[in-house]
Design goal:
There is one protein chain. The protein has helices spanning 2-29, 38-44, 52-62, 65-84, 89-113, 117-121, 127-154, 161-185, 189-213, 221-254. By secondary structure, the chain is mainly alpha-helical. 21% of the residues are buried.
């Protein structure tokens, strides 16, 4: 029995030695040659240049079509409400602004929802640039829609052009601010549900405030101006936080 055991150990040892020798020989035989003229080849390769305008237009193609369509549908619905029910047009429009902002935030959250952050970090453009381009595109598009909607609301005589514009911007910016805060605290699909809840909350405040407090009156307009200033600063700060978070993810991935 002892002789058999010693024979087995000796056989395993010889097998291991032969396997190691085979691996070393394969590494020598299959060793890749040093590349010739590599630097010259890379220098001759064509380099594609993309300017800022082309980059922004390229990012517009990545925004899903239904986001643009829903934004236009909301504008049409609000214009129809302003024509049919002029007395309710202002607070209804203000109550719909959070859901318009939600469409922009959904695009902002898409990469984290579908775990695409690492893929975007591997592109030639920084995540800061991508965030700024997409949010800027949707924000500009929504601003154009608001400017088109303002004449319909002003013609009803409830408020002037400046007042009406601020009444619509404040709930929009409040929704984006709350949504970015929630997205920074919570990751994944749960953040979208929380952002939807924030939109519903802000919309409900517009409806209740217009009925219970009448906060579209002139004597409260100074508070709307203050809220607009605070929310503008808050949105800039939250974008800065989102960009820094993207940088930290990149640094961790590159270690």
């Amino acid at each position: 029995m002892e002789g058999r055991e010693k024979g087995r150990k000796k056989g395993r040892k010889e097998k291991k030695v032969s396997t190691d020798m085979l691996e070393r020989e394969l590494r020598i035989v299959l060793q890749a040659p040093n590349p010739s003229r590599r630097d010259a080849f890379l220098a001759e390769a064509p380099r594609f240049y993309m300017g800022h305008g082309s980059f922004v237009l390229a990012q517009a193609a990545y925004i899903r079509k239904w986001v643009w369509v829903i934004s236009v549908i909301l504008l049409g619905a609000l214009a129809d409400i302003a024509a049919r029910w002029p007395r309710e047009a202002l607070w209804v429009a203000a109550g719909m602004m959070p859901f318009l902002a939600l469409t922009a935030m959904q695009e902002h959250l898409r990469s984290s929802m579908y775990n695409m952050t690492e893929l975007e970090l591997s592109t030639r453009f920084s995540v800061k640039s991508i965030l700024l381009a997409r949010m800027g595109l949707l924000g500009s598009f929504h601003l154009i829609l608001l400017l088109l909607l303002l004449p319909f609301l002003v013609l009803q005589g409830q408020a002037g052009l400046l007042h009406t514009g601020i009444y619509l911007l404040v709930p929009y910016l409040l929704t984006t601010f709350l949504s970015m805060v929630l997205a920074r605290k919570v990751r994944g699909r749960e953040s979208l549900y929380l952002c939807f809840g924030a939109a519903v909350l802000v919309s409900s405040l517009q409806v209740l405030g217009s009925k219970a407090v009448n906060w579209y009156s002139d004597k409260l307009f100074i508070w709307w101006l203050l809220a607009l200033s605070v929310l503008l600063a808050g949105n800039v700060w939250e974008y800065y936080q989102a960009a820094n978070r993207a940088d930290s993810i990149y640094e961790k991935a590159s270690v």
